[in-house]
């Protein structure tokens, strides 16, 4: 009888711990986010087919915002912290632009470190944000 009681307690403890972990664990990628240049969403279509493209002489400030799609027009509401990498076109190697974490960053600073054909990669710091359009293609290279 004592063994059955211990087995039941062990089962309930395991079940409770598993349930607690599922309800308290932060959910990954449950908030939509988008890249903005100044006040404009950079992606041409927020879908699997969407792309972020800028010209090599573009100017302005890059931001990532969490986005509310429940309204007619997508509405940005919270800035999202990010890091920046550059993908080298010749070797397909990504390298960190800097060790800093940004809320906003002048695009011109990134473009100064790019070479012809490179892409800018934005990485969110928090896994709650889904940023499907994280690569910025630069027309005519950086």
Label this structure with key terms.
6-stranded mixed β-sheet; 142 residues; alpha+beta; 2 helices; 5-stranded mixed β-sheet
Structure, explained:
Helix content is 20%, strand content 36%. It is built from 2 helices and 11 strands. The longest helix has 23 residues, at 2-24. The termini are far apart.
Estimate percent helicity: 10-25%
**SSE succession:** HEEEEEEEEHEEE
Distance between the termini: 74 Å
Shape: globular
What's the quick description here?
The protein is 20% helix and 36% strand.
Helix and strand topology:
Layout: H1 2-24, E1 31-37, E2 40-41, E3 52-55, E4 61-68, E5 75-79, E6 82-87, E7 94-96, E8 104-106, H2 107-111, E9 119-124, E10 129-130, E11 135-139
Parallel strand pairs: 1-10, 3-11
Antiparallel strand pairs: 1-2, 1-4, 4-5, 4-8, 6-7, 6-9, 9-11
């Amino acid at each position: 009888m004592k063994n059955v009681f211990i087995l039941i307690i062990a089962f309930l403890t395991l079940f409770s711990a598993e349930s607690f972990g599922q309800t308290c664990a932060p959910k990954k990628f449950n908030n939509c986010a988008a890249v903005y240049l100044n006040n404009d969403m950079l992606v041409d279509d927020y879908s699997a087919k969407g792309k972020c493209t800028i010209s090599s002489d573009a100017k302005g400030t890059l931001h990532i915002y969490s986005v509310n799609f429940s309204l007619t027009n997508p509405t940005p509401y919270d800035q999202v912290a990010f890091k920046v990498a550059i993908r080298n076109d010749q070797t397909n190697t990504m390298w960190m632009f800097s060790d800093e974490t940004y809320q906003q960053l002048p695009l011109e600073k990134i473009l100064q470190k790019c070479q012809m054909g490179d892409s800018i990669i934005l990485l969110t710091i928090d896994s709650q944000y889904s940023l499907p359009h994280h690569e910025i293609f630069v027309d005519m290279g950086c």
